[in-house]
Structure formats: structure tokens, C-alpha cells
């Protein structure tokens, strides 16, 4: 019996889609908050293989999701390339900034990342032993553009202004940064696959802010390079790409990048995606995360509408973005029940 997620990613149309949620291990779960308190802070949790494996398993135990996603963060890679990284409680990540070509040149070579990231690989090895036989394990990284926006600004930004300004001021240095992240991401994800990740997801959370030529150069091209390199080293490894808020540019994204599945945010309708994106292969998504806070009849109706709209082709049920800390675990259970009974 092949795992449900792997069947959908291979292009199979299933009567019930596999289900998992972005940020399924997170602050909406009391058991996550307890383990995080035990670890101390968020980064200590990411770098503690036993505790990171434990929080990865918590939502699987509670809800029986079809996939587990490695507990880590997209910002561990910049740290392994030499950036300082810390998290300010209630605010989010902070990094040392890159402001010019010299800052790019000062980064470590891509091949130097593994010492720092070894605990992540160990977390994966623990999970391959402890996950139920039917649960697929997803490894991940940020896509280069999204990672670069944090490395340049030193924090999350509403419009990615500092990264756009860097790109406008020195496109060669900006491209060198994208290339360094791309090379390091191939090595990082390859090591995750060697440790036991069965699926890879690339998070391009800020893809939507790229203009059309930049979208080709900095969302599509690096994603295509990473996927080609991974598939050359690990034939058949399925990849989910998430160019968040790509809008009409979701059309053809899988073909342009070689991704096996495109993850949809909740700004596009499932009916539109069935007609224009699922024609190319598997799609993932795309319930608005707010329903996990509000619940009720609207949650059930929306989850079932999405499930039915995408039932004619390969589909992985998920939210359009990460579940938020205010969400209720009861609503997660109701979502799963709604999808499976649609
Ligand atoms: O999805 C999962 O359950 C797996 C683990 C995971 C985390 N972050 C854990 C996390 C994954 C896949 C990510 C990806 C990630 N990290 C992205 C891309 C997806 C997206 O949300 O757009 C981005 C942009 C980051 C960077 C990041 N990490 C930010 C901006 C923040 C602060 C915002 C917030 O939600 O607190 C984080 C922190 C973070 N990463 C938390 C978790 C569970 C919360 C930290 C805590 O416990 O205090």
C-alpha cells in the first residue's frame, strides 16, 4: 500500500485526498507549547532532534494526518551560511542584514552548511523510525527569493522593499546571493532526502511580490534549478512548490519548474484551479486558515466545496497558508471529518 500523499503526487485521482496542514506542529496545540517551553526557545527546539521529532509527531498522533512535515524553519539555512539569527517573542525572526556585494561575498560556501544543519538530518532519521507506516514525511526549504528577502532585510517585511531595492541597486550581487542560496538549498534538501525525507516542499512565501520578468528570473528559474538537481540525484523524489500569491502565474508553474504539485494560497478559487492549474497535475490547498479559528458550518461548507471542486484530478488537501496560534484543535478535527465525508 503506497502512502496516500505519494499516490496523489504521482498524479493519481483519489476518492479522498490526503490531508495535512502547513504549520501543523505549532502554537495552537497545547502539547506543542509544552514541548517548546521544555526546549527553551524556538531555535533550541529546531536544533534538538528528540524534541523536534516529538513536535513533528504530535499532530500525527492527535489527528492522523496523511503527512508529517519536518519541524525546522526556512531561516536555519541562512544561519548555516553565516547569518546571525534570533527570534523575538511575539514579533518574529531577526537576522544580520546583507546590504551590498561585500555582504554576499562574506557568506560561507554552500558546501559548509552541513555541520550546523546536522541536527535537522538527525530529526529526520528519528522520524523515519517513529512515524506510522502510512504517514509520508515531508522535508522542506525556503525558495531562494523568499530566503533572500529575510537575509537582506534582516526580518519579515510587508512588501519585501529592502530586497527589491537591493535587486534594483546591484542586480549582479543580488543574483549572486540567489545563486548561493540555490546551491546551498540543493545540498540541504539532498541531505534531507538521504536522511529519509520522502517528499520535498519549497516555500516561496513572497513570490507574489515579484514583477513578471523578476518572477521568471527569481521565482521560476531557481526553483527549476533546485528541482532538476534534486531529481538528478534522487530520481523520482516528488516536489511540491508553493509560489504564494502567484495568482494567474500559478498557470503553467508546474511545467515551467518541474514541480510535481503546486500549492495554492486561498486567494485563488478551487474551481478556477481545477480548470487552469490541475490540468497540469496535482494541486495542494487551499482552505483559508481563518476557518480554523472560526469553525462552524462555514468551515464544513468551505472544506467540502474545495474537496469537491478538485475531486476530478490529483489533489492534496491543505490550508492556503499556515494555521495560526488562535486556531482551535476541535476545528482541525472538524475539517478532517468534513473532507473525508465530502
Ligand atoms: O509547517 C510545519 O509545521 C513545519 C515547520 C515550519 C515552521 N516554519 C515552524 C515555525 C515550516 C515549514 C516553516 C516555514 C517558514 N518559516 C516560512 C514559510 C511558510 C510561511 O509561513 O510563509 C517562513 C516565512 C518562515 C519564517 C518564520 N518562522 C517566521 C516569519 C516566523 C514568525 C512568525 C510566527 O508564526 O511566529 C517563524 C516562526 C515559526 N516557524 C514558528 C513555527 C512553529 C512559531 C515559533 C514559535 O513557536 O514561537
From TrEMBL:
PANTHER family per UniProt: METHYLTETRAHYDROFOLATE:HOMOCYSTEINE METHYLTRANSFERASE RELATED (PTHR21091), UROPORPHYRINOGEN DECARBOXYLASE (PTHR21091:SF169)
This protein's encoding gene: hemE
Keywords: Cytoplasm, Decarboxylase, Lyase, Porphyrin biosynthesis
Organism encoding this protein: Paracoccus marinaquae
GO MF annotations in UniProt: uroporphyrinogen decarboxylase activity
Homology family: Belongs to the uroporphyrinogen decarboxylase family.
Principal location listed in the UniProt entry: cytoplasm
Pathway(s) this gene product operates in, as recorded in its UniProt entry: Porphyrin-containing compound metabolism; protoporphyrin-IX biosynthesis; coproporphyrinogen-III from 5-aminolevulinate: step 4/4
Protein name from the UniProt record: Uroporphyrinogen decarboxylase
